[in-house]
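Lab notebook, design round three. We kept the backbone fixed and only want residue identities now. Task for the bench partner: fill in a sequence for the structure below.
Input structure tokens:
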């Protein structure tokens, strides 16, 4: 961790987990992360995560951060080497994911804000692996992370990552490069001395899948150890013995976890090139329906959000339906029939006179 200071950190809002999931979907299917010890992570307790760096440094870290974010709701911000922020575009990616230059002031600012933080004490040297250095912690005598944790009373969770080292075979490492006649001559020049230096940060030339630099589809294994508290050491951040004690406890935990993960890896049928390829295909077949459903839902949301808002339709005026004729009840029908029967007919029926009719009858009809 650098001693140089930086300006106050700007406000930061993590990207949504769904966005990170879409960006890492292929990477996740390719390496199928396996995790243990997640119960040791308390989202309510700001934590300094300290772990081992694997070859090239960026193969397994994104998946570790995403899995913890998705499963525990904890977003971890990284303390990164200054060289990452000197490369155009690449530095923008680091800023987008919330990484900052690994200075003491930046670390202190993150701790004061209660952030969850990740640091690799091995730094760029542990990333620039040599042949035979797989899963070795190359910390030298560094105690910077321990000093910051003690100073702020931060709890530490040691973690380990296994799998990335099997993604590549190192063909040429820094020792090979530095021992060549060309580099020895270049070091005698001012330009060569400036850019080559002691060769600590020279990345190895490796081979991945086939003859390419594509990483083999090895499974990644992660472990989170028991938390190490530092509150009892507050006020002793300048005590070298205390800092060494904290550092050694963290280092021992990581080495124990590395050994345990490598045993899990050795017994896993999805480890190794063939097993990893089979596992990747199985993961793809298993997750394809879910990924398709998520894509469809996302497309529907985007379509509904982009559709123009229509004005509400005017209410249509409807005519009042005509009142249907009331159906007479049986009792009313009987009264009507009886009244009609009792009423005399308005039309007089004329009949012919019968020849045998008596005078009396004729008078009565005439009247």
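Proposed sequence:
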């Amino acid at each position: 961790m650098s001693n140089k200071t930086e300006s106050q950190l700007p406000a930061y809002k993590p990207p949504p987990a769904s966005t990170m999931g879409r960006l890492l979907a292929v990477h996740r299917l390719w390496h199928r992360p396996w995790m243990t010890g997640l119960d040791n992570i308390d989202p309510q307790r700001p934590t300094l995560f300290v772990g081992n760096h694997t070859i090239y440094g960026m193969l397994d870290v994104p998946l570790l951060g995403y899995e913890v974010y998705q499963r525990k709701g904890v977003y971890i911000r990284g303390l990164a080497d200054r060289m990452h922020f000197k490369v155009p575009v690449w530095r923008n990616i680091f800023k987008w994911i919330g990484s900052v230059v690994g200075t003491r002031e930046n670390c202190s600012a993150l701790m004061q804000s209660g952030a969850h933080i990740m640091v690799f004490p091995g730094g760029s040297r542990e990333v620039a692996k040599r042949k035979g250095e797989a899963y070795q912690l190359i910390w030298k005598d560094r105690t910077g992370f321990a000093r910051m944790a003690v100073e702020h009373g931060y709890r530490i969770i040691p973690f380990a990552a296994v799998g990335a080292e099997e993604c590549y075979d190192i063909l040429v490492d820094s020792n090979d490069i530095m021992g060549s006649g060309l580099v020895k001559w270049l070091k005698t020049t001012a330009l060569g001395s400036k850019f080559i230096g002691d060769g600590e940060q020279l990345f190895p030339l490796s081979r991945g899948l086939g003859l390419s630099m594509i990483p083999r589809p090895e499974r990644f294994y992660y472990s989170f150890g028991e938390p190490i508290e530092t509150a009892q050491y507050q006020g002793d951040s300048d005590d070298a013995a205390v800092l060494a004690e904290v550092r050694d406890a963290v280092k021992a935990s990581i080495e124990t976890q590395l050994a345990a993960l490598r045993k899990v890896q050795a017994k896993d049928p999805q480890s190794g090139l063939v097993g990893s390829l089979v596992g990747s295909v199985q993961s793809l077949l298993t997750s394809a329906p879910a990924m398709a459903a998520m894509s469809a839902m996302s497309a529907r949301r985007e379509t509904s959000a982009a559709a123009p808002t229509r004005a509400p339709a005017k209410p249509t005026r409807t005519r009042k339906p005509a009142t249907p004729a009331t159906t007479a009840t049986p009792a009313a029908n009987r009264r009507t029939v009886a009244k009609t029967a009792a009423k005399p007919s308005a039309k007089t029926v004329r009949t012919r006179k019968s020849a045998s009719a008596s005078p009396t009858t004729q008078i009565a009809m005439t009247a």
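Keep this in mind before ordering anything: The longest strand covers residues 155-162.
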